[in-house]
Design goal:
By secondary structure, the chain is α+β, with helices and mostly antiparallel strands. It has 3 domains: 4-103, Rossmann fold, CATH 3.40.50; 132-201, ATP-grasp fold, A domain (Dna Ligase, domain 1, 2-Layer Sandwich), CATH 3.30.1490; 207-444, 2-Layer Sandwich (D-amino Acid Aminotransferase, Chain A, domain 1). Helices cover 34% and strands 26% of the residues. It has helices at 11-24, 40-44, 63-72, 89-97, 107-114, 116-125, 141-151, 174-192, 249-265, 297-304, 308-316, 396-409, 419-427, 429-433, 440-444, and strands spanning 4-7, 27-33, 47-52, 77-79, 101-102, 155-159, 169-171, 197-201, 207-215, 221-233, 236-242, 270-278, 284-290, 333-340, 342-343, 349-350, 353-354, 357-359, 366-370, 377-378, 385-393, 411-413. α4 runs antiparallel to α5 (107-114) and α7 (141-151) packs across α8. The radius of gyration is 21 Å and the shape is globular. The relative contact order is 0.12. The protein binds adenosine-5'-diphosphate.
Length: 445
């Protein structure tokens, strides 16, 4: 096992990784920008190094500064967390060149899966169902219109290099498709430095179900069942749960087996997630692969009892997986609410500022992953996620009741947060029935 690693991230995920390191007896080095100086979680790491100004391009996204911090502190490995450099294959390659282990998959797998058009092709090869769509970047507006006529509207234009729910445009007819085409290309170039876009059938009333994978260097690969992330706003997850309330045990097996086939075809190593869309007719289709630890990983940890971050560290250090598929079961039901510093009453605009009141929920079945506390100043510079509230109970009904009372206990003031909207969502009849799709939040609120 490693004796010392660096965490190239901030906030709740940096703290999550510090915690795993401490329990495993690994020394951790945290990095911070000027905006995060003095944050309490930094003092929980064994060392903390300033890597630059508040602007992420000058700090958390700055590869030379992170590599320098790693070299100065003499670490053996870097954990990238999620976001920032986590899915940057070039960063993984530079780590390899500098003889620092990257805690994640190989850069080759990241490059392959980071291009959604290539990932789609791989899914087809691995006999994983995909939605009808293009197999190469679209070269012109006319080609897009022709494809759309073949696969029939509605269709969705997506960026090959896309992520974070950005760069997607739905078209219900040729006019809106043509209107969206160039804007989508420009947006893809600007946001992801790759103008390639492709077209796919838009699946209405879809559910988002994803499968957690762990794979080691010597060919062992297991799945840790699924998470249902259908509650989304602007294609971004809001509430996640496991198991999915929408799968029969047969469909669940099929989905997990498909995920394993795909991960094997990509020669995938470490923790990863294979995302699927599930149609109203209970057919599933490949979405994309996330080559990192996910924000919503705790729901899987709660139902399986397996610590995903610890396994990421062990796998990166070359340890074989000791988990056997037949021993991985889910127990009970877990739900996670993402707590963002955003104002739900003002179109979810970010709400940075100082926290004066912070009363955390607790009691049986409650887990809170957060780096904030009373007196913490939320920077307007970074993502507005300030914590994740996770509950784990015997069944879904009890988990919903537990989440309701945990949200009721949670007080964060004076900033606005998504606690209130999460409360409304989990109390909603449709959610309680388990009958929601990816458009539910936008239709209802
Ligand atoms: P990103 O990498 O930006 O998160 P994804 O491909 O994972 O993009 O898609 C995010 C979400 O967008 C999905 O969970 C789903 O809600 C929606 N989506 C993407 N493609 C389709 C599609 N073909 N039909 C319906 N919804 C889609």
């Amino acid at each position: 096992m490693f004796s010392k690693i660096l965490i190239a991230n901030r906030g709740e995920i940096a703290l999550r990784i510090i915690r795993a390191c401490r329990e495993l007896g690994i020394q951790s080095v945290a990095v911070f920008s000027e905006a995060d100086r003095g944050a309490h979680y930094l003092s929980l790491a064994d060392e903390a190094v300033c890597i630059g100004p508040a602007d992420a391009t000058e700090s958390y996204l700055n590869i030379p500064r992170i590599i320098s911090a790693a070299e100065i502190t003499n670490v053996e490995a870097i954990h990238p967390g999620y976001g920032f450099l986590a899915e940057n294959a070039q960063f993984a390659e530079i780590c390899r060149d500098c003889k620092i282990h990257f805690i994640g998959p190989d850069p080759e797998a990241m490059t392959l899966l980071g291009d959604k058009i290539q990932a789609r092709k791989l899914a087809i090869k691995a006999k994983v169902p995909v939605l009808p769509g293009s197999e190469a970047p679209l070269s012109s507006e006319d080609e897009a219109a022709q494809m759309a006529a073949e696969i029939e509207y509605p269709v969705i234009l997506k960026a090959a290099g896309g992520g974070g729910g950005r760069g997607m445009r739905i078209a219900h007819n040729e006019m809106s498709l043509r209107a969206a085409f160039h804007a989508a290309q420009n947006e893809a170039q600007q946001a992801f430095k790759n103008p390639d876009i492709y077209i796919e059938k838009y699946l209405e009333q879809a559910r988002h179900v994803e499968v957690q994978i762990l794979a080691d260097r010597v060919g062992n690969i297991v799945h840790l069942w699924e998470r249902d992330c259908s509650l989304q706003r602007r294609h971004q997850k809001v509430i996640e749960e496991s198991p999915s309330p929408s799968l029969s045990s047969d469909l669940r097996e099929q989905l997990c087996k498909a995920a394993i086939r795909l991960a094997k075809a990509a020669k995938y190593v470490n923790a990863g997630t294979v995302e699927f869309l599930l149609g109203p007719k209970k057919k599933f289709y490949f979405g994309e692969v996330n080559t990192r630890i996910q924000v919503e990983h705790p729901v899987t940890e709660m139902v399986t009892g397996i610590d995903l971050v610890k396994w990421q560290l062990r796998i990166a250090a070359g340890e074989p997986l000791k988990l056997r598929q037949k021993d991985i079961h889910t127990k009970g039901h877990a739900i996670e609410c993402r707590i963002n510093a955003e104002d739900p009453e003002s179109n979810f605009t970010p709400c940075p500022g100082r926290i004066d009141t912070f009363i955390a929920p607790g009691g049986p079945g409650v887990r809170l992953d957060t780096h904030v506390y009373r007196g913490y100043e939320i920077s307007p510079r970074y993502d507005s996620l300030i914590g994740k509230l996770i509950v784990h109970k015997k069944n879904r009904t009890e988990a919903i009741a537990c989440m309701k009372r945990a949200l009721h206990e949670f007080k964060i003031e004076p900033i606005k947060t998504t606690v209130s909207i999460c409360q409304e969502i989990i109390s909603h009849r449709q959610f309680v029935k388990g009958k929601v799709d990816t458009g539910f939040i936008e239709r209802t609120w």
